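We modelled the chain as a single entity of 282 amino acids. Its sequence is:
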Amino acid sequence: MNYTQRFVGIANKIRELVGIPEQLTGIRESIEQQGEATRAAYERKQQQEQEQWRRVEVRFTDEEVRQRKTDQQSQTRIQQSIKRATWATFGAAFLYAGLTFMLWLSARDQLETEQRGWLVFDPNYSDTIVFGPNNSDVLVPFRLVNIGKTPTRTIEGFVIVEELTNSEQPTFSYRADRATPIRVGILYPGSEYDQTTKVPEFSEGHKVVTVTEAKRKKFGDGSVVFNVWGRLTYFDVFQHSHWVQFCHAVTPNPSGKTKGCADYNLVDTPNRWVSLKAIFRR
């Protein structure tokens, strides 16, 4: 009996286990049905909310519309004022920068002008002319002096001496066969460069003028004038190129010194545009 009861109990347990899949299937179907019902309810709710949003209509009163336009116009004016103020500030800053740059450039030019080398012709040295014996060449002395505070270098140019009467004007006509070339590597502050040059005639072949008794007499009474003129270029320590042109009448007679000769004496002047190009070139 004990074995029979145990067998019956086991059989009952087996039947219970066999029924579990059917129960699980029922539970799953119930869950799926509940999920579909929930999803359908959610979709209906969403559709209802969308229909409610479509039916919303915002209306403003005339006073609110006017106030809104006023606010927009006020905002537009404020933005325009900010824009104008920004451009005005930019313009003022640009102008200030330009003025500052020009002041700096002016100070720089002034400093370089004060410290640069200055090459000049010494007319007093040419007045020390001394005639040699008869039939010797007439030799006119000339001198270049650096009166600046720094060296001048790469000095190049020419000097021409013309024999004129006291009523003639210098020709200022350059001819290589009548010019004495000048080439000096460097001239320090206070230094001098001396040289003598012959006097070629205006005739064909430019024969050199020689000393005669008649020449001595004419020079002494001022009827003959030896006119010294030329042009030189050089560089200063700031790498700027300069030029100087000069003219001087060597004669004991003051009337032999012509206005044309005096007006020929010139030096280069500071050029702001050249200074700007030099700055950007560096």
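As a brief sanity check on the tokenised model: The chain has three domains: 2-46, 76-115, 119-281. The chain has a mean pLDDT of 81.
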